[in-house]
Amino acid sequence: MSSHKAKLSVAILLSGREKFSPYYGGALARWTFEVYSRLAERVDAVTMGYPTAASQLYRLPHHTSRASRLCDVVRHIPRIRRYEEKLWLRALYGQFRRFDIVHIYNRPQWVGFVRELGYRGAIVLHLQNNHLGHWSCAMLDELAPQLDLLAVCSGFLRDTFAPRSPALAAKCEVVFNGVNTRLFYPRESVREPATIFFVGRFDREKGVLQLVQAFARVVEDHPAAQLVIAGSTGFGVHNETPYVREVRSLAAALRREKRALIDFPGYVHHDNDLPAWFQRAAIFACPSLFQEPFGLVNAEAMACATPVIGSNRGGIPEVLGNTDCLIDPENIPEFAGALSRLLSQNDHRAEAGRLAYRRCREMFDWDVIAGHWVNVLENTMMGSRPSSVAAASSCA
């Protein structure tokens, strides 16, 4: 290994087929770029994943493999496609085997296979989904000794598995997602006092339909209110699914019957266009119906001093903190009432925005997250984290 080096070397294995791109990539690609680009003096980081066009890449070293073409074929062949991920990892192994740390995103099943390939460095598993919440106690306990650190993006996510495996819980660290406050910052001169904004994946679990239903009640008291629903069904692509048509149909009916102002700008470029939408909005709405592990858009809205009305689910309460703007998104009267009250109370709305901004700068600035992360990595390499615990599994 390279313990003689002054800097840690980290190979980041992007999960699935995520593009390492600010436009076509998702939250994992963004986390990688924002954190590791700030750690260049202490960490040599290389991302490894499926091909991304050079013109679209984040500005960090990115390695891929010609085996991606074979994987594209294998994934469509029944019975054989289950070997696709192992084929991909084996193709990359020659590139990451000499790194001090392998940083794996959202693929706990990769940990054991990376060990089988012969890797003896530190393995960091970084979860931003609830994958381990569905694993048995025995599977969790088997995973624990194979990795050195398990990072999760919220306490909620940790609690989905930690009570069932003390061995794994002992290696777990909560590391939040973050915001680029050089892009996302307040601009009160462009604030529109009656605009409610949503951005996210345009599907059922994000609660877009419930937002439109709530807005139908809001416009009865606030006829000048405007609802902006940004986003698409995928990164940079959009399909007119039955759900999308249902939402658009309801919006069209509200336009006809109540002259409601509802706009669908489509997919929004994260770095170039999204900050301006947050800065203009009076309120950001996050009506997720599922147990959202974190909800990065909430922190980005907070960075722009835009108050958030968000679901009381998953990790969203951890992001928003002590606030009176947590709602049950399926309780339409409650949801609409929260939106209407915030539109009516200008001073309260401004104060809520200021408090949100302060919380974001203290907790979710990427500089804060990067500082936390490099300390976690260095402590992991020094072996300060226990490799095991004496307590038996709580499922024993």
The helix content, as a percent range, equals 25-40%
Total helical elements:
15
CATH class value of the largest domain: Alpha Beta
Across the major sheet, the strand order is 3-2-1-4-5-6-7
Contiguous runs where pLDDT drops below 50 for at least 5 residues: 384-394
CATH superfamily of the largest domain: Glycogen Phosphorylase B
Work out the strand percent.
5-15%
User: What fold name goes in the CATH topology slot of the largest domain?
Assistant: Rossmann fold
Shape: globular
CATH architecture of the largest domain: 3-Layer(aba) Sandwich
Average pLDDT works out at 92
In N-to-C order, the SSE pattern is EHEEHHEHEHEHHEEHEHEHEHEHEHHH
**Strand pairing plus helix content: what structural class?**
alpha/beta
Count of folded domains: 2
Task: Report the major sheet.
Answer: 7 strands, parallel
Rg over CA atoms, rounded to whole Å, is 22 Å
How widely separated are the two ends?
37 Å
The number of strands is 13
Descriptive overview:
This protein has two domains: about 10-180 and about 365-380, Rossmann fold (3-Layer(aba) Sandwich), CATH 3.40.50; about 190-365, Rossmann fold (3-Layer(aba) Sandwich). The protein contains 15 helices and 13 strands. The protein is of the alpha/beta class and about 400 residues long. β8 (about 195-200), α8 (about 210-220) and β9 (about 225-230) form a beta-alpha-beta unit. It has helices at about 25-35, 65-75, 85-95, 110-115, 135-145, 155-160, 165-170, 210-220, 240-260, 275-280, 295-305, 315-320, 330-345, 345-365, 365-380, and strands at about 10-15, 45-50, 60-65, 100-105, 120-125, 150, 170-175, 195-200, 225-230, 260-265, 285, 310, 325. The radius of gyration is 22 Å and the shape is globular.
